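Protein modeling request. Please complete all fields; requests missing the sequence field cannot be processed.
Requester role: graduate student
Desired output: 3D structure, token encoding
Chains: 1
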Amino acid sequence: MTDTKEASEQLVRDFLGSWQARSLDTICSGFADDAIYHNVPVEPIEGIAGIRAMFQGFLDVFADARLDIVTLAAEPGRVLVERVDYFTMNDGRKVVLPVTGVFEIKNGKIARFSDYFDLADFEGQSGMKL
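Delivered output (130 residues):
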């Protein structure tokens, strides 16, 4: 499979859009089994099992999640996305977080996903510790 610019971009757009439906299987479907997910302020998570557990943790505390793309740049196998993530916590609190994500695509799957954001801003708004 060729990781074209268009295919890489669509995979990332599908992943970001999948959060609103809240299906863990759909959210994780674009990841390779040995993928790495790195919220850059904290330690990376290696492997789909750990990534699933982290994403389930988010779904457990967020009643709603919308990841809005501000700017997207793609090339074959790499996508950079500036976005604003909007979360509604189960208790009604709102989280608005500017994020930049870097996606590495290999063989049609997300091999590495790194998110860059202000950890103190996220933890202050959400009450969560990453």
